[in-house]
Amino acid sequence: MEKLNLICVDDQREVLSAVVQDLEVLGSWLNIEECESADEALELMDDIDAEGDFVAVVVSDHVMPQKTGVELLADISEDSRFLYTKKVLLTGQATHSDTIEAINSARIESYFEKPWNADKLVQTVRALASEFIFDKGLDYEQFHGELDQQVLLSRLR
């Protein structure tokens, strides 16, 4: 069975814990990892790739020390190993220009403002992880019961 990872990044521990808690319902088929910085997330992604596993989705805050979430997601977009990794920016402080930069440079798939709607975040991450499986050409059968049904139906047509 393929090992799919969901990485959540936020420098504020209480926010990171809240995001992970909301996404825990996906833990039966996505390995949920927590990182408190962009550099920690990139190191983890290197380790996951070296083990032959996959980073399906990265959910990142924007305002962090050293490297912003937009910079992190842009770095991921430029790394050919993570071509199909889906990216979500979750922030309360991004400016209009930050958001444009995230879309253009980091090629994010989704944007959430804090405070976020937990159900909508779970739905979005489920759909993005489902898209990742098909985009990467993985065997979707092993995840069939967990996949977003709209994505499944659209990809099987």
Salient structural properties:
single chain, alpha/beta, five-stranded parallel β-sheet, 6 helices, 5 strands, Response regulator, phosphoprotein
Structure, explained:
The chain has 157 residues and is α/β, with parallel strands linked by helices. The protein has one domain: Rossmann fold, CATH 3.40.50.2300. Helix content is 45%, strand content 18%. It has helices at 13-23, 38-50, 69-78, 96-104, 118-136, 149-156; strands spanning 4-9, 31-35, 54-60, 86-91, 110-113. It has a five-stranded parallel β-sheet, with helices on both faces. The two termini are 24 Å apart. The mean pLDDT is 93.
Can you count the helices? 6
Low-confidence residue ranges: none
What about the largest sheet?
Answer: 5 strands, parallel
Structural class: alpha/beta
Overall strand count: 5
Shape from CA axes? globular
Assign the CATH class: Alpha Beta
What is this entry, summarized?
With 157 residues, the protein is α/β, with parallel strands linked by helices. It is 45% helix and 18% strand.
Helices, strands, pairings?
Blueprint lengths: L3 E6 L3 H11 L7 E5 L2 H13 L3 E7 L8 H10 L7 E6 L4 H9 L5 E4 L4 H19 L12 H8 L1
Parallel strand pairs: 1-2, 1-3, 3-4, 4-5
Helix pairs in contact: 2-3, 3-4, 5-6
